[in-house]
C-alpha cells in the first residue's frame, strides 16, 4: 500500500496508494523495486527493512498495478500484496485497491486470517477493499480514500467504520532535489492510520520527502530518497531512507 506513503501499509501504496497514469497510445509496463529502512504508510509504522516491488501495466489512462512489501530482517513483519485498478484523465483519477496482509487479524473477530489469501468471507478475510478519488490542482493535489468492503475497522459501536483517509500533497524543488510535503488525516473515528485514540477528526500524517537521482553511469541513475514522517495523533516520528531500482 503504499510507496512509503499504511494499514499496509494496509497503498503503494501504494503506490500508497493509486498512481495516476497519463493517456498513452501504447501499453506500457512498469517494473521497479524500492528498498527502505522502515516501512511507514499514512503515518503508521508497518515494518522494518523491506523490499517493495512493483509490477504494472497501463493503457490510455487505465492501469493495473501489483505492489508488495517483503520484510528483510524482521520475520514477524507482515508481507503485503496489493492490487490497484485505476483510471486517470487529465488531472483527475479514481481507483480501487485490494490490500492483503499475510499476518492480518480480522477486526470483527480478532482471529488471525492472513494465512488464507483466497478467503473472502466477512469473518475470515485478510483483504481490505478501498476506493479512492483525487485531483491534481498543480501546486497541490488532494486525494480521498474509503474502505468499503473486507477487513475494515469498526466504529465505537462495533459497526463497519468505512474507515477513510484524506491527503494533501505539495511537490516543489529546492537545493537540487525534488521535494514533497504531505498532510494527511482521518475525518472521523478510525482504527487505521495510527489514529486509534481519535473519536473524530485527527491529523495522522505530516511528512516531507526529498528525492535525488544518483548518477551511476551515463545511461543509468538510481533515485535516492529520505523522508521525515510524523504522526501527531499517535505522537510518533520516523526518519526513512531508501532507493529505487527501475530498468
Rounded mean pLDDT is 86
CATH topology, what is it called?
Porin
Question: What's the number of helices?
Answer: 0
Instruction: Give helix % range.
Output: under 10%
Give the strand order, joined by hyphens, for the main sheet: 1-4-5-6-7-8-9-10-11-12-13-14
CATH superfamily: monomeric porin ompg
Q: Tell me the domain tally.
A: 1
- Coarse morphology: globular
Range of strand content: over 45%
Give the oligomeric state of the chains in this entry, treating copies of one chain as homo and distinct chains as hetero. single chain
CATH architecture tag: Beta Barrel
- Low-confidence stretches are 4-23
Structural class per helix/strand content? mainly beta
Describe the structure.
- The chain has a 12-stranded antiparallel beta barrel. It has a two-stranded antiparallel sheet with strand order 2-3.
- With 247 residues, it is mainly β.
- It has a single domain (28-245), classed as Porin.
- The protein has strands at 28-36, 39-41, 44-47, 50-59, 62-71, 80-89, 92-101, 127-136, 141-150, 164-174, 177-186, 202-217, 220-231, 236-245.
Amino acid at each position: 500500500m503504499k510507496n512509503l506513503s499504511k494499514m499496509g501499509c494496509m497503498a503503494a501504496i501504494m503506490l500508497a496508494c493509486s498512481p495516476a497514469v497519463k493517456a498513452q497510445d501504447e501499453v506500457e509496463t512498469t517494473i521497479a523495486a524500492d528498498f527502505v529502512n522502515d516501512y511507514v504508510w499514512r503515518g503508521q509504522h508497518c515494518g522494518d527493512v523491506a523490499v517493495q516491488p512493483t509490477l504494472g501495466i497501463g493503457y490510455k489512462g487505465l492501469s493495473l498495478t501489483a505492489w508488495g512489501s517483503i520484510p528483510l530482517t524482521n520475520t514477524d513483519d507482515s508481507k503485503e500484496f496489493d492490487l490497484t485498478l485505476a483510471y486517470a484523465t487529465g488531472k483527475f483519477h479514481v481507483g480501487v485497491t485490494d490490500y492483503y496482509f499475510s499476518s492480518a487479524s480480522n477486526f470483527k473477530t480478532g482471529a488471525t486470517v492472513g494465512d488464507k489469501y483466497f478467503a473472502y468471507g466477512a469473518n475470515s478475510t485478510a483483504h481490505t477493499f478501498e476506493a479512492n478519488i483525487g485531483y491534481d490542482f498543480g501546486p497541490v493535489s488532494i486525494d480521498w480514500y474509503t474502505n468499503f468492503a473486507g477487513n475494515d475497522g469498526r466504529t465505537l459501536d462495533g459497526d463497519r467504520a468505512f474507515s477513510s483517509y484524506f491527503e494533501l500533497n505539495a511537490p516543489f524543488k529546492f537545493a537540487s532535489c525534488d521535494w514533497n510535503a504531505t498532510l494527511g488525516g482521518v475525518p472521523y473515528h478510525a482504527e487505521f492510520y495510527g489514529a486509534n485514540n481519535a473519536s473524530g477528526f485527527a491529523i495522522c500524517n505530516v511528512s516531507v520527502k526529498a528525492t535525488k537521482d544518483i548518477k551511476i553511469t551515463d545511461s543509468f541513475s538510481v533515485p535516492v530518497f529520505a523522508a521525515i514522517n510524523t504522526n501527531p495523533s499517535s505522537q510518533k516520528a520516523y526518519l526513512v531512507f531508501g532507493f529505487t531500482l527501475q530498468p
